[in-house]
């Protein structure tokens, strides 16, 4: 077990120990609000939250968990409304993956003023008025993606960054990390870094087609900062016969299709988060805060580069195939 996994194990043990004191008569009501509800990443967050709920119940800490978020990951207004509705319902805590780093600031600040414990997961906000931030080091993940793509290209060639969406702090940090890493390789030229894929695989596919029409003949590598962007781009590459490593692809997250594309050789690297742990530690941290115990302001849930070389390792397989059915009906 490497140092990163040891650290994550220690954080988990510490949180469970802190929240396993005297049972309360009334359950804590905690709302878990993802950016969207369709991508596998958010289902993994949900599974982690349920895992925490069950483990807390076994220790005498009762939690009523409510899972609700916008259908689309670009529906800021709906997510704001969800947060405000839960504030009106006077839930005890909120675990929130904010769609927009600025637009969700006011709802979170208002919730905190209403004595609701808020733990932000996945994507940061432009405020510190919350109990804790539980997430991947997204910037470091972007750096890992850039370094791996540079290695694949032998430190020379042309690359493209297909961005996700304006205002998404997590993917913006990944994009910045990628660009900063590539800048350290003077033999690599960035052909394009200003195009956005949008919130779904369909919009990502359309954006990828447009991008490849312009740069498909000259690009040697492409970085995608999330699951839907990676899947849409890879499909567009297959359509023009540029998959299977003809253009190197490094993506982010480990949905079923992305993992399949990695196994087939259409993707040469995936930067993988641990969303189950993110949802799990998000709920544990809210409960710890509700019980008046100190919480860490930032909790790093880890990030891993997955390639064909380490694909078969047990730790990697556990990340790629979380037991969602064990926790979700």
Structure in words:
- It is a single chain.
- This protein has 329 residues and is α/β, with parallel strands linked by helices.
- It folds into 2 domains: 3-136 and 274-301, Response regulator (Rossmann fold, 3-Layer(aba) Sandwich); 138-272, Response regulator (Rossmann fold, 3-Layer(aba) Sandwich), CATH 3.40.50.2300.
- Helices cover 46% and strands 18% of the residues.
- The chain is built from 12 helices and 12 strands.
- It has helices spanning 3-18, 40-58, 76-88, 105-113, 138-152, 169-183, 201-215, 227-239, 256-264, 275-290, 314-320, 324-327; strands spanning 28-33, 63-67, 93-96, 117-121, 132-135, 157-163, 188-196, 221-223, 248-252, 269-272, 298-300, 304-306.
- The strands form 2 sheets. Strands 2-1-3-4-5-11 form a 6-stranded parallel sheet, sandwiched between helices. It has a 6-stranded mixed sheet with strand order 7-6-8-9-10-12, with helices on both faces.
- Helix 1 (3-18) runs parallel beside helix 10 (275-290) and helix 3 (76-88) packs parallel to helix 4 (105-113).
- The longest helix has 19 residues, at 40-58.
- The model has no long low-confidence stretch (mean pLDDT 93).
CATH topology term of the largest domain = Rossmann fold
CA gyration radius, whole angstroms:
20 Å
Provide the β-strand percentage band.
Answer: 15-25%
**What string, H for helix and E for strand, traces the elements in order?**
HEHEHEHEEHEHEHEHEHEHEEHH
- How many independent structural domains? 2
- Helix content range: 40-55%
CATH architectural grouping of the largest domain: 3-Layer(aba) Sandwich
Helical segment tally? Answer: 12
């Amino acid at each position: 077990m490497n140092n990163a996994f040891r650290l994550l194990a220690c954080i988990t043990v510490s949180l469970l120990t802190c929240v396993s004191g005297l049972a309360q008569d009334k359950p804590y009501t905690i709302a878990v609000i993802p950016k969207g509800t369709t991508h596998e990443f958010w289902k993994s967050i949900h599974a982690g939250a349920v895992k925490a709920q069950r483990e807390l119940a076994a220790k005498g800490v009762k939690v009523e968990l409510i899972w609700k978020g916008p259908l689309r990951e670009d529906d800021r207004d709906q997510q704001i409304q969800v947060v405000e509705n839960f504030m009106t319902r006077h839930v005890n805590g909120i675990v929130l993956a904010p769609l927009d780093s600025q637009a969700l600031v006011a709802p979170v600040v208002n919730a905190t003023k209403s004595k609701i414990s808020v733990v932000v997961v996945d994507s940061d906000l432009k405020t510190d008025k919350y109990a804790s931030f539980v997430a991947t080091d997204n910037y470091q993940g972007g750096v890992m993606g850039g370094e791996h793509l540079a290695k694949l290209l032998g430190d020379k060639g042309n690359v493209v960054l297909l961005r996700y969406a304006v205002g998404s702090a997590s993917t913006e940090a990944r994009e910045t990390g990628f660009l900063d890493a590539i800048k350290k390789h003077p033999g690599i030229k960035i052909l394009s870094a200003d195009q956005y894929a949008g919130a779904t695989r369909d919009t990502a596919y359309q954006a990828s087609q447009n991008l490849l029409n312009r740069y498909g003949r000259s690009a040697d590598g492409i970085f995608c900062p999330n699951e839907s962007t990676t899947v849409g781009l890879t499909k567009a590459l297959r359509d023009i016969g540029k998959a299977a490593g003809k253009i190197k692809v490094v993506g982010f997250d480990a949905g079923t299709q992305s993992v399949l594309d990695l196994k087939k050789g259409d993707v040469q690297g995936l930067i993988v988060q641990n969303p189950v742990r993110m949802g799990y530690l998000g709920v544990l941290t809210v409960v710890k805060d509700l019980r008046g115990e100190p919480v860490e302001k930032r909790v790093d849930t880890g990030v891993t580069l997955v390639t064909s070389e380490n694909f078969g390792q047990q730790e990697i397989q556990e990340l790629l195939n979380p037991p969602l059915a064990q926790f979700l009906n």
